[in-house]
C-alpha cells in the first residue's frame, strides 16, 4: 500500500483504491505516515501541513465521511497537543486507533449481518462493497446456499470486481446490466447494499443507481438492506449541510461524445429512509431513522477523547 499523500489522493480519485472502507483506511494511513515524517519545527507549521494534507485527501472523493471523519479526528488530536512532538504522537495514536476501530466495526457488521442471510436466499447487490462481498462470503462459508445477482455498475464497472470476488469464492453469481434490476427483482429475496454515507435524517448515499433499485425493490415488496459501519454516518449533515455528491469526469461515460452533448455523471445518489428496511451496523441492526441519534452521541465521544 502507498502512503504518500499526493499519490494516495490520486489513487483514490482514479478509483484504484475503491469503496468507502478501503478509501478511509488508505487515506488515514497516508495522513499518519506524512505526519510522522513531517519536518515542521513549530506546532503551528505542523498543524498547517496536516490540515493541507487532510484537505487534499478528503477532496479526492467528497462523498466519503468514513475518510473525512478519520482525517478530522487526527487534526483534532494534533490541535489538542502542546508541541510538535506531542502532536505527532497524537496523530499517530489517532490514525492507528481510527483504522483499528473501522476494522473492528467491519468484522462486527459481518458477524451480525450474516444472521440476516437465510439458506437459499437470492441476493441482489450493486457496485462493489467490500462489506457486502465479505458478508456474502461469510454466509457461503457457513454453508448457506445463496445465489447472487450483481449489476455491472456503469460507468466504471465496479460490479466486475464483485463478480470476480464472488465467483472465486464459489458463490453462484449472475451479472446483469444496471437496467435489468426490475426484470429479475421478483426472483430476489434480499437487496443488500453498502454505503458511502448516511445523512443524519436517514438517507443512504451509495453508488448512483441505488435509489432506482430501491424503488424497484419496493414495487416487488423485496426487502432492501444496507451493511455499513457507523463511521460512514456524516456529522456534516447533522450540522445542516447537504451531503456533497461527487461529480466525475464525463469521459467515464463517453470518451469521445458529440460536440455540444451534455453528460451528467454523479458518482452517488440518495435513497430515502422509507425505502430502506434495515441497516446492519457494528452496533446492531438498526432503522435508518436512528442515524441522527447515533451521530449526536458519537460527536460528543470524539470531542471528549482528545479535549481532556
Ligand atoms: C463504491 C460503493 C460502495 C460503498 C461501500 O463506490 O458505492 O457500495 O463505497 O463500500 P465507488 P465498502 O466504486 O465509486 O468507490 O463496503 O467497501 O466500504
Question: Could you please describe the fold and organization of this structure?
Answer:
The chain is globular, with a radius of gyration of 20 Å. Helix content is 47%, strand content 13%. It is of the alpha/beta class. It has two domains: 2-109 and 297-307, Four Helix Bundle (Hemerythrin (Met), subunit A) (Up-down Bundle), CATH 1.20.120; 116-293, Rossmann fold (3-Layer(aba) Sandwich), CATH 3.40.50. The chain has a seven-stranded mixed beta sheet, with helices on both faces. A three-stranded antiparallel beta sheet has the order 5-6-8, covered by helices on one side. It binds ribulose-1,5-diphosphate.
Characteristic terms for this protein:
Four Helix Bundle (Hemerythrin (Met), subunit A), Rossmann fold, seven-stranded mixed sheet, three-stranded antiparallel sheet, binds ribulose-1,5-diphosphate
Radius of gyration: 20 Å
Tally of domains: 2
Tell the overall outline. Answer: globular
Based on the structure given, which CATH architecture of the largest domain is correct? 3-Layer(aba) Sandwich
Output the number of helix runs. 11
CATH topology of the largest domain: Rossmann fold
Proportion of residues in β-strands: 5-15%
Major sheet details: 7 strands, mixed
Q: Total number of β-strand segments? A: 10
- Measured between the Cα atoms of the first and last residue, the distance is 34 Å
List segments where confidence is low: pLDDT < 50 over at least 5 consecutive residues.
none
User: Percent range for helical residues?
Assistant: 40-55%
Sheet with most strands: strand arrangement: 3-2-1-4-7-9-10
The structure class reads alpha/beta
What's the helix-strand series? HHHHHEHEHEHEEEHEHEEEH
User: Any ligands, ions or cofactors bound here, and which?
Assistant: ribulose-1,5-diphosphate
Q: Average pLDDT value?
A: 96
Amino acid at each position: 500500500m502507498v502512503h504518500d499523500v499526493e499519490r494516495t489522493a490520486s489513487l483514490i480519485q482514479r478509483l484504484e483504491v475503491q469503496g468507502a472502507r478501503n478509501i478511509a483506511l488508505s487515506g488515514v494511513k497516508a495522513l499518519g505516515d506524512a505526519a510522522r515524517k513531517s519536518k515542521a519545527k513549530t506546532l503551528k507549521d505542523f498543524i498547517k501541513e496536516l490540515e493541507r494534507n487532510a484537505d487534499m485527501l478528503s477532496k479526492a472523493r467528497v462523498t466519503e465521511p468514513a475518510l473525512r471523519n478519520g482525517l478530522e479526528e487526527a487534526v483534532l488530536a494534533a490541535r489538542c497537543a502542546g508541541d510538535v512532538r506531542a502532536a505527532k504522537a497524537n496523530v499517530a495514536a489517532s490514525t492507528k486507533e481510527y483504522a483499528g476501530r473501522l476494522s473492528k466495526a467491519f468484522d462486527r457488521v459481518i458477524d451480525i449481518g450474516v444472521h440476516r442471510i437465510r439458506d437459499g436466499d437470492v441476493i441482489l447487490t450493486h457496485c462493489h462493497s467490500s462489506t457486502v462481498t465479505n458478508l456474502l462470503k461469510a454466509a457461503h462459508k457457513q454453508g448457506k446456499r445463496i445465489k447472487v445477482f450483481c449489476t455491472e455498475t456503469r460507468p466504471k464497472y465496479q460490479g466486475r470486481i464483485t463478480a470476480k470476488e464472488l465467483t472465486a469464492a464459489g458463490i453462484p453469481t449472475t451479472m446483469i446490466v444496471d437496467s435489468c434490476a426490475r426484470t429479475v427483482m421478483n426472483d430476489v429475496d434480499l437487496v443488500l447494499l453498502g454505503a458511502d454515507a448516511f445523512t443524519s435524517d436517514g438517507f443512504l448515499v451509495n453508488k448512483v443507481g441505488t435509489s432506482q433499485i430501491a424503488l424497484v425493490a419496493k414495487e416487488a415488496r423485496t426487502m432492501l438492506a444496507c451493511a455499513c459501519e457507523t463511521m460512514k454516518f456524516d456529522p456534516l449533515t447533522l450540522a445542516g449541510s447537504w451531503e456533497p455528491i461527487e461529480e466525475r469526469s464525463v469521459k467515464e461515460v463517453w470518451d469521445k461524445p458529440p460536440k455540444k452533448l451534455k453528460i451528467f455523471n454523479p458518482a452517488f445518489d440518495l435513497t430515502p429512509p422509507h425505502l430502506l428496511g434495515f441497516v446492519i451496523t457494528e452496533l446492531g441492526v438498526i432503522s435508518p431513522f436512528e442515524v441522527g441519534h447515533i451521530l449526536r452521541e458519537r460527536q460528543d465521544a470524539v470531542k471528549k477523547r482528545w479535549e481532556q
